[in-house]
Amino acid sequence: MAAAVYAQPGSGARFDWGLSGAAELGRVCAALVVVDVLSFTTAVEVAVGRGMRVHPFPWGEQAADYARRVGAVAAVGRRQMTPEHPWSLSPAALATAPVVADLVLPSPNGSAISAAASATGLPVVAACLRNARAVGRWLRRHGYGSKDAPVGVVASGERWPDGTLRPSVEDQLGAASVLDALSGVPGGLSVEAAMALAALASTPDVPAAVRGCVSGRELIEGGFAADVEVAVQVDASEVVPLLRQGVFSAA
Hints:
By secondary structure, the protein is an alpha/beta fold. Helix content is 38%, strand content 18%. It has helices at 18-26, 40-49, 62-70, 91-94, 110-117, 132-141, 169-181, 191-201, 206-212, 214-221, 225-231, and strands at residues 13-17, 31-35, 53-58, 73-74, 102-107, 124-127, 151-155, 158-159, 165-166, 241-244, 247-250. The protein has a six-stranded mixed β-sheet with strand order 1-7-2-6-10-11, with helices on both faces. The chain has a three-stranded parallel β-sheet with strand order 3-5-4, with helices on both faces. It has a two-stranded antiparallel ribbon with strand order 8-9. The termini are far apart.
């Protein structure tokens, strides 16, 4: 009985963190939303918006082998980009890189969670600050958010050097933006979802918060301020990337 409460029963929209949270919500929800603002789900939104199909894949060298097997281009780390290979986890770079049909986009957080979630067979949506309201509208239009068809919103978070989860400001705000768009769903919000949403209500300037948080500062100080600027374009997109048979494409 105690374990059942971790799934936040009795609510239409639920919230949790990381790979373990996604696994718990994936066990009981009718749809999952993955949020990784800096930068996986923002990169997915940009790439899918340009007509690319995105294959999520856990971080590691095997991504290149997988890309070869499926006839895709494998994205590399931001610092491994070259003029000949401009595809990476950088949303700013993907906004101008040549369009390819299929892109394998590995990351240690959002991509790994999405790849694992695809095994559930549930609809999995990639959300970020750019498309949070569009994602919320899509979910409501398709009947998600009731007690019988609950939505699980998962903030990916970051990693400490020892591999443990580091909850992150940008992903809480991104998840809260989706939950805000789900306010008023028939099943209501779980306590966890409502508390996540409260963070958005107390943040008057979301772009400034993302720029100033640890993850934003890390990218800016590392020379990737353009990625942060793409990520903080709130409600700039109507693209809803939906994971079907292991691949994100436009819903």
